[in-house]
Amino acid sequence: ETRRSFRDRSLRAVDTILARHGPHDNVIAVTHGGFIKAYLQAAGLDDPLGPRSYDADNCSITYVHFPPLDAHDGGNDPWIGCLRGFNETRHLQDDTALQVANVDVEL
User: Which string of DSSP letters, residue by residue, matches 47-60?
Assistant: First the structure.
C-alpha cells in the first residue's frame, strides 16, 4: 500500500467515525502511530514529501476535537479538527492522572 492510499484510507475511517457519532459524543479510537501520523500529515502538520518532525510513541494518546459537521463551511473537509494533545505519555511514566493540554492548534 502506498503512503497516499494509506492516508486516504485513514481519512475515510475518520469520516466514517464522524458520520456515526453525534456532536456531543466522546469517541475513543485505538490505532497505531502510522494512522496518527497519516492524519496529522494530511491535516497539514508537515510537508508530505519531506521528513517528519514528530513521532507518535507506542501507547501514547493524541486528542483531536472535531466541531459538529454542520459547523464546517463548504470549503473544509469534515475530518479537519483541532489538535488538543499529541503524543501524551505521562500516563506511562507514573500514577499521575492524564491531563490533556489546553493548547489549540488549528489543523
Answer: -TTS--S----TT-
Compute the 3-state secondary structure of the chain and give helix, strand, coil in percent, each to the nearest 5: 35, 15, 55
Pairwise CA distance, residues 74 & 102, whole Å: 28
Over residues 7-47, the pLDDT tens digits come to 899 989 988 998 898 878 889 989 988 888 888 888 777 76
Spatial separation of the C-alpha atoms in residues 49 and 75, rounded to whole Å: 24
Amino acid 48: pLDDT = 67
Report the predicted TM-score, pTM, of the whole model to 2 decimal places: 0.68
E strand map for the chain: 61-65, 82-88, 105-106
What does the alpha-carbon distance between residue 31 and residue 34 come to, in Å, rounded to a whole number? 8
Return d(Cα 79, Cα 72) in angstroms, integer.
Answer: 10
